[in-house]
Write a structure and sequence with these properties.
about 300 residues; alpha/beta; 7-stranded parallel beta sheet; two-stranded antiparallel sheet; 11 helices; 11 strands; about 35% helix
Length: about 300
């Protein structure tokens, strides 16, 4: 199916994130920028069309950042969707900047975080951002222990000024989540997690008990797409694509998981959204569960 208007993403359910209840199938805007998430896309009109198709299909949760591009994805979101529906939740993240060769450079000082929030506000055309995630850059490649008190405090101060409604965390450990909660409410956690990378299994379960949303980034593997013979076999048996099965498994994994698969193609957008209607039988789930143990 390529007509996104005919896809009912409400079948995947909803979950509360901050003051909004959102559908569990959202959209990640990273791929709207150029190659390497740097510079403009080759076809800006196509990027605008994908965003509009996502919202027309019922997507009410868009994940972005002003360091995608930089500035590019937020500018495209504004062009495509502003003025925004009151039902649309926009989530951004701060703590990095881009170097001249597309490097991801930590930007976690008070001045840098404050400037980043204002950049997001300006480029999105907002007076207040629904949710700002602090992405720990203590290690660019994955969570690393270390205090994030100073950075979360900066965001909490901006929240008190009325520039941010809610605060989330990204690329963090359980210890850092506990530290953040001593400063402000943490409404979501965004870490890498998918069928093949399941280090956060225990954390997801703990967050579910607390009613906190978990938003896996790279749900389909990111820069290294998921590749698994088992996944391919299950998908063929179910008459679905491997990526649809991978997304359906995440929705099955825990009710507090919200998905933000990204794409710059309306065809792939439709495929991703259709995953919300895919029912995985018990034998398929059992087979899929073996992937994380062997990859």
């Amino acid at each position: 199916m390529t007509d996104t208007k005919k896809i009912d993403i409400s079948k995947a359910g909803t979950f509360k994130m901050g003051s909004q209840t959102v559908k569990r199938l959202g959209y990640g805007a990273m791929q709207l920028a150029g190659p390497g998430v740097f510079g403009p896309p080759k076809h800006r009109t196509a990027a605008v069309a994908v965003l509009r198709a996502a919202v027309e299909a019922g997507v009410d949760h868009i994940d972005t950042s002003d360091f995608y591009g930089p500035h590019v994805t937020n500018e495209i979101i504004r062009e495509a969707l502003h003025p925004y529906s009151k039902d649309l939740t926009i989530v951004t993240k701060v703590s990095a900047r881009r170097g001249p060769n597309a490097e991801w450079i930590p930007a976690m000082s008070k001045a840098e975080l404050t400037a980043a929030v204002h950049d997001n506000l300006r480029n999105l055309g907002l007076d207040v951002i629904d949710i700002v995630n602090f992405r720990s850059m203590l290690d660019v490649h994955g969570p690393a222990e270390g205090s994030i008190e100073e950075q979360v405090t900066v965001l909490a101060e901006l929240q008190q000024q009325g520039l941010i409604r809610h605060i989330g965390l990204s690329n963090v450990t359980a210890t850092q989540i506990t530290e953040g909660r001593k400063i402000t409410e943490i409404v979501c956690v965004q870490n890498m997690y998918n069928l093949a990378h399941r280090a956060d299994d225990a954390l997801i379960d703990d967050l579910a008990k607390q009613g906190t949303a978990y938003v896996p980034f790279f749900p389909l593997g990111g820069f290294s797409p998921l590749q698994s013979l088992t996944l391919n076999v299950v998908a063929e048996r179910l008459g679905a694509t491997p990526m649809q099965v991978a997304l359906a498994w995440l929705l099955h994994r825990a009710q507090n998981i919200l998905l933000i698969p990204g794409t710059s193609s309306i065809v792939h957008l439709a495929e991703n959204l259709a995953a919300g209607s895919l029912i995985l039988p018990a034998d398929a789930i059992a087979e899929l569960e073996t992937i994380g143990a062997t990859v």
